[in-house]
Design goal:
two-stranded antiparallel ribbon; 98 residues; 28% helix; 4 strands; alpha+beta
Length: 98
Amino acid sequence: MANRYNKSRVFSDDNGKQYLNRIEYPVIPIRDSDIFINGKFGQTFINLANQFYGDKDLWWIIARANNQSESIYTIPGKEYRIPQEKGLIFQEFNELNS
């Protein structure tokens, strides 16, 4: 799968200051294939992405699916959704950022 920064572009303002463009993330609907887990103390979306996807850089999929942007840590006992349709998520991600 593609790295989420592959389509990032640098642009310059009128003063020549350079910026990295913003990346748009897709809405990730609930699907029958999703896995649900309960958060544990010290667990992060990075750990979960590595465990379920074999790629820690995909942590943003789990965070986005659970509408959590404040912290990379799970809340112990809270239910979290782990989307399994990575191909569909990447397709929409690429459409939003092409």
